[in-house]
Amino acid sequence: GSSPTLHLVPCNLHPADLFGFRFLIFELCIMILNKTNLSAIASQAVQKAEAKVFDLPEKVLQFGTGVLLRGLPDYFIDKANRQGIFNGRVVVVKSTDTGGTGAFEEQEGLYTLCIRGIDKGQKVEENHICSAISRVLSAKQQWEEILKCAHNPQLQIIISNTTEVGITLVEEDIRQDPPASFPAKLLAFLYERYKACNGGVHGGMVIVPTELIVGNGDRLAEIVLTLARYNKLEDGFVHWLKANNTFCNSLVDRIVPGKPAAEAKQKIESDLGYTDELLIMCEVYRLWAIEGHDKVKNILSFAPADSGVIIAPDIEMYRELKLRLLNGTHTLSCGFAFLSGFNTVKDAMEDEAFGQFVHDLMLSEIAPAIPAKVNAEEAERFGLQVLDRFRNPFIKHQWISITMQYTSKVKMRVVPVLLKYFADHNKVPQHIALGFAAYLLFMKAVQREGRVYQGQWKGEFYPINDDKADHFFHQWKKYDADELVQQVSGDAGLWGTDLSALPGFVPAVQTHLKALMKEAPADLIARLK
Predict the structure, then answer these.
(1) Which of 279, 321, 336, 365 has its CA at a distance of 20 to 30 angstroms from the CA of residue 55?
(2) Alpha carbons 138 and 186: distance in angstroms, whole number
(3) pTM of this prediction?
(4) Is 88:182 a contact under the CB 8 Å cutoff?
C-alpha cells in the first residue's frame, strides 16, 4: 500500500543520452489518462473533460474504432457535450479481429486529440481530452451485449467507418454470433431494435456511414434491404425499416494521421503530464457534410456545436469542392512537384514560385470551371482553406503517394474541369496544361522491377503505381514527345472523350512537355503569367 520508491544511482551520461534518460524517468513516474486521474492533470496545454459528462446516456452506436471516427464525428460530439447541446455519448463496436479493446478499457474511453495546422495563416496547436466514447464492445466476444443496446430508447444514431470495402453485400445469416460483414451486423441490430420497440415509429434510427464512397448511405440502405429479403425477414420489419429509418449520404474531410512518431508522442505526453496510448493527431480543417432534412437535424443535435458539421438536403456542392479544389489540385500538381524535386506538399508550398503555381491553378482555373452549381465566394473560401491545409507544417504528405493511380485520378478529377473550362472560356488553361504535361512525363517508365514499372528522373528511379503503366511504357517507346501528346490526348478510351479536339490543348501540352524535359520549373511557372 505504500508508494513505490525510485532509487537513482549516479552514473556518467553522455549529453546525447540525457534526452532519452529524461523520458525513461518520465515513463516510470507519469500517470495514465483515465477518469480517476483527470483531476490530477495540471497542464494548461490541454482542454480536460468535465466529470459530469460521464453520467450522460448513450445516444450513438458507432461501428469502428479508427482514427477518422475519433478525430471527426467523436470530436464533434465531444464538443457539443461541452456546450450542453447534445448530452449523449458513443458506444463503439469493434468489428475487426485485429488488436483489442484493452487501451480503451484502461483509459475508460478517454483519449487526447492533438490538433495541429494552419488556420487563416496562423499556426494552431491545441490538445483536447475527448470523452465522447462511453465504452468499446468487441463484436466477436460481446455480440449479445451489443444487441442489448438496441433496447435503449435514447440511442437513435448509428455511424460507421468500416473502409470502402465494408459496405459490401455478403449473403449471410444475420443470426450468427456475430455476422461477418458490417451490413449484416447492422441489419441484425436493426432487427433487434424493431422487436424491442414493437415496430413503433419512435424506434427508428438515423444511420450515417462515413465510408469514402459516393452515395454511401443509399448504397448501405440497398444492401441492408437485400439482406433482409435474403434472411426472409417479415414484411412488417421491411416496412418499418424503410418507413422509420433514415440512411444519410455523408462526406467526411479531415486528415487524421493517427499516433505521432514515438519521440514526438513522448514530448507531447511530457508537456501534458500523462501517458495516452490512444493519443492521435489531426489537422485543423474539418468537414462532415450530411444529407438530410429536419428530422435528421433534430436527432443529430450535436451539429450546431461546430461549423464543420453541415446538414443539408443536397451535399453535392461539398463533394465537388473537395474533389476539384483539393483532390484535383493535388492531381495536377503531384507530377510537376515530384519532378521539381519536392518530396512533400509542405516543401512545395514553401517555395514561392511553386506555391504561386498551386494558388493560381486552383483559384484561377479549377474554381471557375467546377462542373456543378457552386457559388464563387464559397469556392474561393474553400480554396483558401485548402491552401492552408497544404501549408500545414505538422503533416508530411508525400507527393509520390499522391501519384498512385495517376491516370484514373486525372480522368475523374481533372477531365470534367478541363471540358467545362473550354466550354466557358474557349481558351487553354495553361496551368492545367502544364500539370497534364507533367503527368505524361512522370508516366514515362524506363524499366520494370518485379510487378512495378519505374521511371527515372535526374539519375534516380521512382515507382509508377498505375494500372495504365504498361500502356504508357509502350507508348513512350513508340512515339516521340509531340506524337505521344497527340496520341494520348486523342485516346477516348482513356478519358471518355477526345481531348485533342479541344482547340489549342495539344500544342500547349506539347510545348510544356518539351520545356519540362530541359528547363527549371521556376522558369516554366514564370512564363505562365
Answers:
(1) 279
(2) 14
(3) 0.85
(4) no
